[in-house]
Specification:
The structure is a homodimer of 247-residue chains.
Chain A: E1 9-14, H1 19-31, E2 36-40, H2 48-54, H3 58-62, E3 65-67, H4 70-74, E4 80-83, E5 94-96, H5 97-108, E6 113-117, H6 126-130, E7 134-137, H7 149-165, H8 182-198, H9 210-220, H10 225-239
Parallel strand pairs in A: 1-2, 1-6, 2-3, 4-6, 4-7, 5-7
Helix pairs in contact in A: 1-2, 1-7, 5-7, 8-10
């Protein structure tokens, strides 16, 4: 079993015409932890424009394998998926990108697999699709389904990463926020009610569910300890006439 | 309720420096059925390079709203999500792109919402993030998490479309394939067994589960009617000595 199934995935770009797309694809792969870029008969490669668009992924570009044919590119692949924007006459089964990614990662845990993209203008030929076991497509607007090839690589690479490592993210500032406790929050509500009564905003003979609505608002926000302290201070200060505040 | 929640989503690009990225973002949006492109203080716009990279999405580009400030761009938005590649000190909660898309689409069924992307080099400032209710990030390789801004727009637009309309795709050639029936398949297995016996490949005194293995192989493939007819013909022809074949 490979520790990282993404290392067993090669991404094959067939006859890519614009070097900028090769560079952008390299960057897209690297952001998702993929590196196995394989180029079949690229239009212009290497090329300064590819390097310019690869930005920090020039290493992926330089390690790219250049092949003369798709057969050469697919040698050793145990499961090969062709990406296409349109249904084909050939009855190769077609699934959405998400499902294709899950199936690729499953095989990639033990054997090399490949994901194949066609030329910018014509996509993959019928013969190229025939060398693959599965067709995958990115669900798109039927009226305009033509993703740029590097954009399509980005979406597939993203789904592959999620299939391998899940969709969770580490949250913000390192340590999790400390939620305020029940009694801290109740102390704030008491201060709030006192202040509103004193200011005449809350009429004790006609309270109109004001406190209930305020409780609902603050209840929803999951107040943190520091926040409840700030709010307590704000309310207390506002409710104290300026002349009586300590300097 | 909007019929199409995607119509209620505006995508705000802040101070985008390269017009090519604006064009590529317009194309990314259009492929996913989104159109509400909003530009805050773009570096160069309009620009021929933006049109060149928009390809068939020049209409989205031309209808883009150009604003002087993020406040102007967000007027009317009932829920605003900031996209970021890195956790922030500000304790705005952060979720993965997929969850952010689901929450945006939920609100967008009834009210306008916004998704905000920062400048290519610096991302969003703390002040810009402070105007948003939620941070969203694309899970990426921690060692190289810098997606191109148009690539990030593509991934988010893709997740928004899936959140609105699901991940299913229509399969291939229009009419679903006709699966072969039990009796058609059994007729093929009988022919296969007869042919293998005749050719001496199958030894009746030591069959070694050969037929069981062949059944397992063909069983897995969900044979279609046309395929089983082809296989039947192939086996029958191969098993008939050339001299005996009808011309």
């Amino acid at each position: 079993m490979a520790d990282d199934p993404l290392k067993n995935i090669r991404v094959v770009l067939c006859e890519t015409a614009h070097p900028g797309n090769i560079g952008a694809a390299a960057r897209a792969l690297k952001t998702m932890g993929l590196a196995g870029l394989t180029l079949v008969a690229p239009g212009r490669f290497p090329d300064p424009q590819a390097e310019w668009l690869a930005v920090g992924a020039v290493d992926v570009l330089r390690r790219a394998r250049v092949c003369a044919s798709l057969d050469e590119a697919l040698a050793g692949s145990a499961f090969t998926v062709a990406c296409t924007a349109r249904p084909r006459e050939v009855a190769v089964p077609m699934v959405a990108a998400r499902e294709a990614a899950a199936r690729l990662v499953e095989v990639a845990r033990t054997q090399p697999v490949a994901l194949v993209f066609g030329n910018e203008t014509c996509g993959l030929t019928g013969a190229e699709v025939g060398k693959c076991q599965l067709l995958a497509t990115i669900p798109a607007d039927p009226g305009f389904s033509s993703l740029n090839v590097a954009a399509a690589v980005q979406v597939f690479a993203y789904e592959l990463r999620l299939a391998a490592f899940g969709a969770t993210v580490r949250n913000g500032s390192g340590k999790p926020p400390e939620h305020a406790t029940h009694d801290e929050i109740e102390r704030f509500y008491e201060q709030l009610e006192r202040s509103l009564l004193k200011a005449g905003f809350l009429n004790p003979r006609n309270p109109k569910k004001l406190m209930a609505r305020l409780r609902r608002l603050f209840g929803r926000t999951q107040l943190e300890q520091e926040e409840v302290n700030i709010l307590y201070g704000v309310i207390k200060t506002l409710a104290t006439p300026k002349s009586k505040r300590s300097r």
